[in-house]
Amino acid sequence: MQFVDIAVNLGDPMFRGSYHGKTRHPDDLAAVVNRANKAGVTRQILTGTNLHESKLVLELAKEYNLQSTAGCHPTSTTEIEKYDGGEEAYFRDLEAFIAADRSDAGSKRIVSIGEVGLDYDRLRFAPRETQLKHLPRLLLLSKKFNLPLFLHDRHPEAHADLVRILGEVGFGGDWPGGVVHSFTGTVPEMEQLLKLGLYIGVNGCSLKTAENLVVAKAIPLDRIMLETDAPWCSVTSTHASHAHLPKGVVVVDKVKPEKFVEGKGVKGRNEPAEVVTIAHIVASIRGLPVEEVAKAAWENTMKVFFPGEA
After folding, report:
1. What is the pLDDT of residues 80-103, one digit of tens each?
2. Average pLDDT score over the chain
3. Has residue 310 got a pLDDT over 70?
4. Which residues pair with residue 46 across a beta bridge?
5. Phi and psi angles of residue 97, each rounded to the nearest 5 degrees, phi first
6. Are 43 and 273 in contact (CB under 8 A)?
7. How far apart (Å, rounded) are the C-alpha atoms in residues 197 and 191?
8. Gap between the Cα atoms of 111 and 45, Å rounded
9. 100-112, pLDDT tens digit by residue?
10. Angle formed by the axes of helices 275-286 and 290-305, to 10°?
11. Nearest-angstrom CA–CA distance, 122 and 136
């Protein structure tokens, strides 16, 4: 089996051993990438959450032969107006950054516009007015650069606004598509996204509750993608999905940070190899062989993010 983890925050300091500004174990980023490769996760798309982070993860993508996104997460949109030169300068620099990578002389490792969208669960980071103001312009980068969208959709009202704004900017069949990652909404909300032609990304946060499992079971196989959102969104013993963990399958053997051992993962920190676990859980929920789920997710991801290879 082979996998693409479509959402990895590989630039997070946890992969360098730093937690909340405190070093708790040695840098093991290279080992994390190596474990993923050995587990069959041959491709990773690294998430750019703002201009700075987009630049950081592009460099990591170059170093480790991966891909990345470029954009501005809804909770980061306050930085657009605080940027030196304001909104126009921010978008000028973001567009120049993407254009340079997509040029003949560029690495062409940026394969998506994201992370962009709306998040009304964490308005303390960015008020909805700020998120709504900048979303249309961020979405239109997808059309401008012919790159699929990597979307964030958190909260029922945010979902309604996202669907509305996608319509207002003309999102449709002449766009390069996209995925709503880490989906935690309802079946009707999921069906709205499918009607727009979007794909649905599933990770540990998408599988917390019994209601989440109903949604995961309802996603058409030809529209599902798999992800970890590492180092976040681990599957824990309190999640409804925990009962569907494959017996005897330990993708990453883990120890506590203070007992760090080279070659092992870290408890409380998700990593890209564990997208294999997500595939097993989704397969169990649906009563399907894991190979069938893995193959469908791979083909869907290749079609959207790597159309030249699909």
Report:
1. 999 999 999 999 999 999 999 999
2. 97
3. no
4. 8, 68
5. -65, -45
6. no
7. 10
8. 8
9. 999 999 999 999 9
10. 120
11. 20
Q: Which sequence spans correspond to the domains of the chain?
A: 3-305
User: How far is it, in rounded angstroms, from Cα 285 to Cα 288?
Assistant: 8
Q: In sequence order, which ranges of 29-146 are alpha helices (DSSP H)?
A: 29-38, 51-64, 78-82, 86-102, 128-145
Name the residue type at position 100. Answer: A
Residue 153 assigned to a binding site:
no
Note the pLDDT of residue 247.
Answer: 85
Element (H, E) at 255: strand 254-255
The SS3 of residue 46 is strand
Residue 268 has pLDDT above 70, yes or no: yes
Backbone angles phi, psi at 25, to 5 degrees: -165, 165
CATH of 3-305, one of 3.30.300.30, 3.20.20.140, 3.90.105.10, 3.10.20.30: 3.20.20.140
Within 10 Å of residue 93's Cβ, how many Cβ atoms?
Answer: 15
Instruction: Please give the model's pTM, rounded to 2 decimal places.
Output: 0.97
Residue 93 assigned to a binding site = no
Q: What are the tens digits of pLDDT across the range 49-79?
A: 999 999 999 999 999 999 999 999 999 999 9
Which amino acid, residue 4? V
* Residues contacting residue 137 through CB under 8 Å, at least 6 positions apart: 91
For 270-298, how does the pLDDT look when each residue is reduced to its tens digit (9 = 90+)?
999 999 999 999 999 999 999 999 999 99
Q: Is 181 annotated as a binding residue?
A: yes
CB 40 within 8 A of CB 310: no
- Coil, strand or helix at 113: strand
Say how far apart CA 113 and CA 219 lie, in whole Å.
23
